[in-house]
Amino acid sequence: MVIVRSTLTFQPVLDRIADEIAQTPTRGRPADYIPALAACDPARFGMAVAELDGTVYGVGDWRQPFSAQSITKVFTLALDLAREADELWEHVGREPSGNPFNSLVQLEYENGIPRNPFINAGALVVTDRLHTRTGDAAGTLLDFLRTESGNDRLAIDEDVAASEAAHGDRNAALGHFMASYGNIDNPVPVLLDAYFRQCSVAASCADLALATGFLARHGIRSDGSRLLTQRQAKQVNAVMLTCGTYDAAGEFAYRVGLPGKSGVGGGVIAVVPGRCTLCAWSPGLDEQGNSVAGVAALDRFTTLTGLSVF
Amino acid sequence: MVIVRSTLTFQPVLDRIADEIAQTPTRGRPADYIPALAACDPARFGMAVAELDGTVYGVGDWRQPFSAQSITKVFTLALDLAREADELWEHVGREPSGNPFNSLVQLEYENGIPRNPFINAGALVVTDRLHTRTGDAAGTLLDFLRTESGNDRLAIDEDVAASEAAHGDRNAALGHFMASYGNIDNPVPVLLDAYFRQCSVAASCADLALATGFLARHGIRSDGSRLLTQRQAKQVNAVMLTCGTYDAAGEFAYRVGLPGKSGVGGGVIAVVPGRCTLCAWSPGLDEQGNSVAGVAALDRFTTLTGLSVF
Amino acid sequence: MVIVRSTLTFQPVLDRIADEIAQTPTRGRPADYIPALAACDPARFGMAVAELDGTVYGVGDWRQPFSAQSITKVFTLALDLAREADELWEHVGREPSGNPFNSLVQLEYENGIPRNPFINAGALVVTDRLHTRTGDAAGTLLDFLRTESGNDRLAIDEDVAASEAAHGDRNAALGHFMASYGNIDNPVPVLLDAYFRQCSVAASCADLALATGFLARHGIRSDGSRLLTQRQAKQVNAVMLTCGTYDAAGEFAYRVGLPGKSGVGGGVIAVVPGRCTLCAWSPGLDEQGNSVAGVAALDRFTTLTGLSVF
Amino acid sequence: MVIVRSTLTFQPVLDRIADEIAQTPTRGRPADYIPALAACDPARFGMAVAELDGTVYGVGDWRQPFSAQSITKVFTLALDLAREADELWEHVGREPSGNPFNSLVQLEYENGIPRNPFINAGALVVTDRLHTRTGDAAGTLLDFLRTESGNDRLAIDEDVAASEAAHGDRNAALGHFMASYGNIDNPVPVLLDAYFRQCSVAASCADLALATGFLARHGIRSDGSRLLTQRQAKQVNAVMLTCGTYDAAGEFAYRVGLPGKSGVGGGVIAVVPGRCTLCAWSPGLDEQGNSVAGVAALDRFTTLTGLSVF
């Protein structure tokens, strides 16, 4: 991929996208499995682009914190990979699942080894291992996000975490099921607590675009230190592209053409390797659990700028 | 086919890769479901890189024709998309299957609509539709490959085609199964004949790297005419990246980081959008049906050149 | 099971059941995959009981021929078992499938060995093997049914057979799929022809109740000769009870409590071992493909007479 | 417990079976998922037959208590059915599962409603509902078993219960999974405690043959009071026949031809409706989790006595 750096900023593109989104009536429905998410207004929309040097452009509700949810799976994956490297891949796969994000079916056929780190089962394995290595997976994540975003107020929404725990039977089932195959280290309730807290991080488009920057900088953090090797950064991007949006990964690759990861809070992050990172947010989801306006905004961005990996 | 040795050529990289591959003893086993493929020597290896202008670099058996097999699915997809555009996607999906390439399971759960055009069921649908639109799917493919590669001797290996037909019960099952859902236009025996002939095209690494060029040129054929829109070319690349190597698409994206497509003849093509196309060949396959040395060669190429999309 | 032979006949019970059925408005819908079956009037109803000595009682349309369809699977199973005994069970299982009658899913997970002889895949295997052993599976079946029923006019409805063949893609898929695993002896088109003719036998409730008699007589045919050993007859009854009514075998056992087998023509046969055999017919089917009024009539019969195996 | 040796007794049959079993070297392996079961000697064997009036015949280790395990599912089913009748069937099905006893796959496809009350998921639902209705499912079961067997020392083995709980991740996964579909009333840990205690009842062949008597007496308890209606007793027998031995129900029906239920402790109960009940025990299991010698003994019993339902 050859990219020529123009003197233009991303602001006009973001403004145009926001205008187009504002004229689009269909927005999907917020996640309704916990009250905290169901109350979100699907009319809200924000988007941010962060350049490699930390310059951020934004539009709409781009500074409004929202529930990051599954977007955090990218960061825990990177934080654990940085610590244990390839040993992780003996406990979680790297293939698309072809099934909904909380499916148990494949897990059973494949003896408790989840298909990839972005379905819930795989994310539980990653969090379990990060928790073992750090003693506090959610805290490690929070530190990382605060540092990369430069936002010290970035925090876990404890109400959301409690609500997740109160509606956490499916994840409890996943945890116990994998534990029955010996693929979980921590006691399942301990793991679930860490996982629900991780999912409940509240962050803005600006925060998340900045925190994703290391994936566009081939593994380098905002302070210039290395989190991942170049090869690992490439690999995380590859897993995002093939597995990042539940069972709509093919659709996302087809439309947006960038490594990306969505969360049921309505956020979606994306990476233009070597160039910039993006985060769009709008709470209304499609049937696969991806933000309708968020994906549409990223689709428009790659079409307008030509900044797809394909 | 014009071969120009530019001052900054890919030749040294290819030579180095060939040296490394020559020192790697493990090569997998040739496909054994038909005698014509089983007889191939797994020690053979070739690789070619084609630049956008048709310049080709090669090493090893890069001019040796081999059975293209599933690699042809990329071309029939493009040839059909060029004719019917998005209507195709009502009959075949764009999501990774997460299952082996000839699985019937998912097809049943999803009412005869294959997951993507690169599993056998999906390729049968594409060939069926191309056959309806052109009257001769295999002939249309052959014309295209000859023109793009500049090789008029490129041909269908009729012995292989006959052998495929004699061992074609699984594909016959797929065809009849989808016909029972109304997703096949032609009589199943007619479709199977076209499909087995398509798979039996014999072409070299040089031929296939050149024929793939339109995907690196954003839809433009070798003569400057447009086959696909820029958006369609991007979309075919996206489907290759997420679905191109059977149930190892995640692994391929993770290791190679390029849109690619493999065939059980031992060939693998790959695309560096805006830059070049590649084809590697070695008959020994891994358990997922992908060429062991072919994938390893592409892995080394992206590592040595940095030409990954991630 | 202890049964005391009374002097009373079954006629009053049948008359009462017919009265009750006549007052039941809900009758389901005839099978609609081929025109010949779709044209049947769901208001029709017949029922026959045959005692061990060949005495037959009947009510309603009990002498009206209808399409026997899957009921014939019981007879081909017995006719093949009589010839090859336990070797058959290496090619077809004896377990309930838990899936619809024409599912390919389980077949794939279990390498082409169908779960039992009463799902379509299993019946194809049985017919294939009987065809190999007799040279004419459908003819062998027809001879048997004519002899046991004493009805020489009993025949294959060639229009139905042609219609089955014209809508036979699903069974063609099953045949080719199992052939790909080496579990079919005859060419698939030959097998399909035999199978579609077998399914198209037209017979009445009286015919089928009489023809089933050997299963109540522990393996003895109407002329006193032995078709099956006592153990084999018990085994066929067991397979009927656990697998005879598609994915509603549990429901049938729960409601009727007898070994039974249904067909999409609306017929259902049942066995009271050591006592009598039954056949009920009404073309309207439920969602599982079983005759609504036919099953209801058998349910009433066992409730009124206490003649359940439980 | 009254033991009368009648002139036409089952004793000679039992003695003969025990002799035959003693000469059979192949016995399978004890369940090894908890130490308490793994320690059992597979050479042990016992068998008891109880007539309708409470007369019991036995051989071998027929008075030796063993872990009843899944055999208790028959009793909790009956105890709950007696309380809520058909409402239960809205929460658990009556069809064979066609899958291993602790599978989550089918449960997911069928939205948290287990296929039948004898797979673990279904048994959890039954215990949950019985616990809601009685306040103490395991205690209710224990009372019932003591009364029917006349054995006041019959007890829960608390060591086994603790061991089950310590290895209970799979059942915890099932419980949480169904809770996520709203199909569990009690908190999952409460349910699991009741369930593990239920499974840990220790009882002998004599105890269990006697306690099963109500199913041969069409619903009547040992004291002459009615537990189930005649229709319900018939239905429980039907569910036992089609679903009682995990994914080998067809095999059991085919070989033994009686309603039966096995447990991983090595016990198997069976019912000859209107005649007698049986329990055989030997700790060595086959791959489906059924007692090798226990099933063989029941097979011989029905062959020697002709007391099959078919």
UniProtKB/TrEMBL annotation, chains A, B, C, D:
The UniProt keywords, alphabetically, are: Acetylation, Hydrolase
Binding of substrate: at which residues? S70, N120, E164, N171, Y195, Y246, V264
Which InterPro entries does the annotation name? Beta-lactam/transpept-like, Glutaminase
Q: Which is one GO molecular function term here?
A: glutaminase activity
Broadest EC class? hydrolase
How does the annotation summarize its subunit structure? Answer: Homotetramer.
Name this protein carries in UniProt: Glutaminase
Upper classification of the source organism reads:
Bacteria, Bacillati, Actinomycetota, Actinomycetes, Kitasatosporales
